[in-house]
Specification:
Elements: H1 5-17, H2 19-26, E1 28-32, H3 33-37, H4 42-45, H5 56-60, E2 64-67, E3 72-76, E4 81-83, E5 93-95, H6 112-121, H7 124-129, E6 133-142, E7 145-151, E8 157-163, E9 166-175, E10 178-185, E11 191-193, H8 195-207, E12 211-220, E13 223-231, E14 240-250, H9 257-266, H10 283-295, E15 298-299, H11 300-306, H12 311-323, E16 327-331, E17 337-341, H13 343-349, H14 353-365, H15 368-380, H16 386-394, H17 404-427
Parallel strand pairs: 5-14, 10-12
Antiparallel strand pairs: 1-3, 2-3, 4-11, 6-9, 7-8, 9-10, 12-13, 13-14, 15-17, 16-17
Protein name: Translation elongation factor
Pfam families: DUF6996, DUF6997, DUF7226
Organism: Robertmurraya siralis
């Protein structure tokens, strides 16, 4: 994989300050923001919301970084991320958008703030808290001073002191007896940085006598997912425990098996495009990427740095969108390659839930391999084996796929996308 600017900058800093040797000697290394700034802007060098974003040197040596204050950071072998496991059997609770609301469009919730506003006005926070709530805070603030123990990769505990670090809260919701702190992402994720809940939790635990509830929230594929946690020991960073996952969706006309069958029958095959056949197993992530591009045109680096994609995934998923005719590229004024939605992509992403997912289904089934695999499912009641999927693909005149191993890798995408189609009636 190619090196990012952040990778190169950290290589310089590790070499200049003998960071690995100091960590081996002391168990940690403190670095000043001004020292980081000598090679690159600290805000680009020290904020890694997901494990996949960590620089190469950090991944290779099991390291992570946390802010101690506005001007210093600590690097060590700390466990700082929490894995997110979505419950696939959880049926989203349908909620209604109040009819008097005209300034929220549920078909256009492609920013974290708009998704959170919608969640609040439709009563999702109330259902989680069990009592009515008001949004009272959001944005940046100081953490004040506190200390805690954090687990190292070897299972030991290290004591850390925080002095006025900057924190950011996406939403704080206060009810009669509780205060809920929400960290939000507008995409499906594999993990998140516990600090984004822990530092605000410690600040507000001191400032209010109400129960403080840390919540991680994602809005993806029209589903609002809330992961409700507690810190079983407020003084331990790694004491985060999942209490419950609650999923919601704005009330809509449901998708049924006959809808899928109708799209299958009416979808007209198109010739295979001269674009690499997709290697992007999760169609949910394709939909996430389309949603991100509703808000802004993005470069490959912006997608990789700001969302839960690593560099390889960014390439795979942008190509998948291009294969479907929903994403295109252009060069901006700096000759940088930018990704944007095509007219068809923009039109689909502006539709209501049922129409949107049926149109996305059509964009898949106009391609022969996917249509044939689904046809065999309808015929036999089970998905064909991977070897059979490869047979189907070989007869479909795919662009520039020759090796047996490539066919087998790409077959996972065919099966993943067809599975996504088949699960639509269960989910929506």
């Amino acid at each position: 994989m190619s090196q990012t600017k952040t990778d190169r900058a950290w290589e310089i800093l590790f070499d200049r300050h003998h960071i690995l040797q100091k960590i081996q000697q002391d168990g940690f290394f403190e670095i000043q923001a001004k020292e980081i700034k000598e090679v690159r802007e600290p805000r680009l060098m020290a904020k890694f919301d997901h494990f996949s974003h960590l620089p190469k040197l950090f991944k290779e040596h099991g390291l992570s970084i946390l802010p101690l204050s506005r001007s210093s950071y600590i690097i060590g072998e700390f466990n700082v991320y929490e894995k997110v496991k979505y419950n696939p059997r959880l049926k989203p609770i349908q909620v209604d958008l109040p009819s008097m609301i005209t300034t929220i469009d549920p078909a256009n919730l492609y920013s974290e703030s708009s998704a959170l506003h919608c969640a609040h006005v439709t009563g999702m926070m109330e259902r989680i808290l069990g009592e009515s709530s008001y949004q009272t805070i959001s944005g940046r603030m100081s953490s004040k001073e506190f200390n805690f123990n954090i687990q190292t990769k070897q299972g030991m505990e290290r004591f850390i002191e925080i002095k006025n670090s900057q924190i950011e809260i996406d939403g704080g919701y206060e009810s009669e007896h509780q205060f809920m702190i929400v960290e939000a992402k507008n995409e499906t994720v594999d993990d998140f940085l516990v600090r984004q809940l822990y530092y605000p939790y410690r600040l507000w635990k001191e400032k209010t006598n109400k129960k403080v509830i840390p919540v991680f929230f994602t809005f993806s594929n029209d589903i609002f997912s809330f992961f409700i946690y507690e810190f079983t020991d407020p003084n331990r960073y790694n004491s985060l425990k999942l209490i419950e996952q609650k999923d919601f969706i704005i009330a809509h006309e449901g998708i049924v098996h006959d809808d899928i069958m109708g799209v299958f029958r009416s979808a007209q095959n198109v010739p295979e495009p001269e674009i690499p056949f997709p290697q992007a197993d999760s169609f949910m992530r394709v939909v996430d990427l389309l949603g991100l591009l509703v808000e802004n045109d993005l470069s490959k680096e912006q997608i990789t740095l700001n969302y839960a994609f690593d560099e390889r995934q960014t390439s795979y998923y942008t190509r998948a969108g291009m294969y479907l005719g929903l994403i295109e590229t252009y060069r901006d004024g700096n000759k940088q390659v930018m990704f944007r939605l095509t007219r068809a992509g923009r039109e689909i992403m502006g539709l209501k839930t049922k129409e949107k997912f049926l149109r996305l289904t059509r964009s898949i089934l106009i391609h022969e391999p996917f249509r044939q695999v689904l046809a065999e499912y309808f015929e036999k009641g089970t998905l064909p084996e991977k070897a059979r999927v490869v047979e189907i693909m070989k007869k479909s005149q795919l662009y520039n796929v020759h090796k047996e191993s490539t066919y087998f890798r790409r077959a996972s995408t065919v099966m993943g996308w067809v599975n996504w189609i088949l699960q639509l009636p269960e989910t929506y």
